[in-house]
Records
---
Amino acid sequence: MKAEYKVELYTGIRPTGDLTIANYIGAVKPLVELQKQGAKSLVFVADMHSLTDNEPAVANKFCREVVADYLALGLDPNKTNIYIQSSIAYQVSYMTMLLARHTSVSELLRVPTLKDKLKNTEHPETANALLFLYPVMMAADILLQRAKSVPVGEDQLAHMEVVRRLARDFNARYGDVFPIPAVQQVKSLRILSLKGTGKMSKSVPGGAIFLTDDLAKVAKKIKSAETATEGVMTDSLQSHITLAKELCGDPAVHLNIDSIISEHLEGKQVMGVFKDLLATIVVDFLRQFQTRRAEIVKDPSYIDSILKEGASVALANAESTLDLVRSSMK
Ligand code: TRP
């Protein structure tokens, strides 16, 4: 019984600043909901992965910011341990090397995220080798912590294939070392740009609502967002409905939204009413978030102590896994 799980739910988040409301609905909220189901969970900020695009100092700077964001969005430190990946940098790096030995160059060259990146950069010959090792480093994270289930978005599925293949091959060679992690695909709701075309994204700031946006500006952005002609359901309207319902869980408000939308579909002129409601919902949500976040960052020792505890859990798991790995390779 070597290959025991240590963590039920495990995932990594990127240290990027400026989360949008679409990031919240697509990535943060599903994680917060999974955590509520009571599993023992561990979440980390993948600052070493983000060295693919950032200087170490930049990656590091955003770590605490993103932790503050996630805590203010509902991640509960009593249920979830949180650590920064680089606080166990030695273990992650060493494990990455050991696993890289069992990964072929051709397998990594076939990973679609790498292929797309190379295709879409002007100078593919300058792409760095860390990009290439990305899935192997993910395997190091997950296998070190002996994770049972890994919730990830669709974009990470190909990486998870490499992780599971590595765990199986390593076991086949050295014995029952790693428990095999299950992939839990998080269904991601698509929130569109307020400008009407494409996904809401940071790169089109006018069509995106940021969690840090000024509340008066948010209300204006929503009022000038794309609307649907009476009687017609559009992708953009559907996205607004999703946005409203995801941000406000009150069933009475959901009924109100449904009745406004059925009036709209009957041809009545109610888009103004709907937008007012949407603006109220978004502004209320952001106000609560911003208040909670300000509270959280007021005392820096609060986040320090959460990260310290998380790091000690992650380190203990990683060291005991490495002991097992070393002894199985003798
Ligand atoms: N690659 C993930 C992302 O870009 C982050 C990540 C790194 C991760 N290591 C992981 C996710 C291990 C789950 C498990 O979002």
Note: Residues 213-294 form one domain.
---
Amino acid sequence: MTAPLIDPFARAITYLRVSVTDRCDFRCVYCMSENMTFLPKKDLLTLEELDRMCSTFVRMGVEKLRITGGEPLVRRDIMTFFNGMTRHLESGALRELTLTTNGSQLERFADQLFAAGVRRVNVSLDTLDDQKFADITRWGRLPQVLRGIDAAQRAGLRIKINAVALKGFNEEELPRITEWCAERGMDLTWIEVMPMGDIGNENRLGQYWSLKDVRAEYEKHYRVSDLAERTGGPARYVRLEETGQKIGFITPLSHNFCESCNRVRLTCTGELYMCLGQEDMADLRKPLRDHPESEKPLEDAIRAAIGLKPKGHDFDYSRQTVDGRMSRHMSHTGG
Ligand code: SAM
Ligand code: SF4
């Protein structure tokens, strides 16, 4: 173990989110355009390189790894990578190995993920209506995802549902989605839609629905109490007294959460983004590939990058762009 990663604002970096592919079997309208150009294979970190990269972060104090994408479970042989990370769970260096998925491949992978040491999974699901699901994901089919969720629960994985809040799209489904999660013992988090990437010129199938309004909607149906819980991220939680359910709200636009940020994001090409809302990044692939025999140059590059982690992001007051809008897709940095 080397010295822990501490950024210039005294925040310890203990959480790494890793995008293992930019590809996906869905084309969610707020995330991708229908015709995406994906990265050439040679630009992607190989599974061995991903292992080396993550293992270096773990040695430097990262305790939680979240695997994301694109859709992480469409990356060929991805279980080789998960199985490799199991050794860090077994050594105690890593406290949690988890993933964010659209659920389409969970039926196939749930047991293997559990065997690799995964205990919790975030599944992104915005609607329980077959047609709306097909509309919002363009290529996805709801029954396949529901079978995946069933398989994951049978395997013993705890599920949290992440739903993007879209006005006029899933607004009236709020009670149904909430009850469905309660019946199945799943937590639920609403995400405010963010201005990420060029998603083509199709209709947006819904618009920005402020989570203040989502919360107000809950207050019409339930007694809502605030929870003090913080995870170092953008989520805030409430409890619904009637069901005992914990509901999360991720509000990157209307709430500033940067002061407690403990995370950085690695793309599938080895770029390290120190902040989801800033364009600044460091190339870690070069020190990794140029020095196959030594981890020191990679460690030095990671430490230098963390030294540049900004204090906060500006979706709402621009630094780099006119309106704080990000040019890269969510599937690039992994959300
Ligand atoms: N494919 C996986 C999935 O959908 O869970 C993992 C990657 S996806 C980019 C991660 C999360 O980002 C998903 O929960 C998705 O809903 C969310 N997301 C994508 N585009 C977004 C946007 N423009 N605003 C807010 N959330 C977005
Ligand atoms: Fe794919 Fe996830 Fe983006 Fe949807 S949100 S297109 S499932 S990466």
Note: The first strand starts at residue 15 and ends at 19.
---
Amino acid sequence: MKSTPVAPEVVLLHGFTGPTEDIVAAVEVISAAASFRHLKTPGGRPMSAAMTNCGALGWVSDARGYRYEPCDPLTGRPWPAMPDVLRSLAQRAAAAAGWPGFDPDACLVNRYVPGARMGAHRDADERDFSQPIVSVTLCAPAVFFWYGARRSGTPLRVRLEPGDVLVWGGAARRGYHGVGPPEGGVRINLTFRKAV
Ligand code: MD3
Ligand code: FE
């Protein structure tokens, strides 16, 4: 398995997923129960990526801010359970990158149609920053932007192909990052976190 250290404590596992049909099918089952929706920023602007979640907790954003919730605000029901095929993928990727014992309780599913993107931000709504984050690209590639400790300056650009898995830990866990629009179709990204 080829892997590239993008920056200290950032590991890109090329093609780590293997064939993605079962993973994409699991996402379809999740989104049938908890629809993709455009969350609003606390300032009231709809995000260009559509989102849903699986696992015990799901990440949400609205006028009250960013947080993790046990239930889907659209339905009032618990988020769909994290399928074993997804949990095991995240655990194997974290272990391969040097973080054994990763036990995610949240999986945010992002869907990017052509033109959709995610601006520079950092993931700061989780309790324990010693736990890594695992990100999986499906269906279409996109360029990922890595800024590091500050939001300013010229980011490092990394092209993420379907099947690629990125693992972030240590100091990189707090770094600023963003992603450009998908190239040639709809991109799905899974982001596994330990929220609590
Ligand atoms: C680096 N998603 O959901 S994945 C996000 O392509 C998010 O959907 C992007 O950023 C996407 O928050 C980028 C790569 C990623 C995810 C989380 C990180 C990189 C990260 C957390 C800390 C540092
Ligand atoms: Fe992020």
Note: The chain has one domain: 3-193.
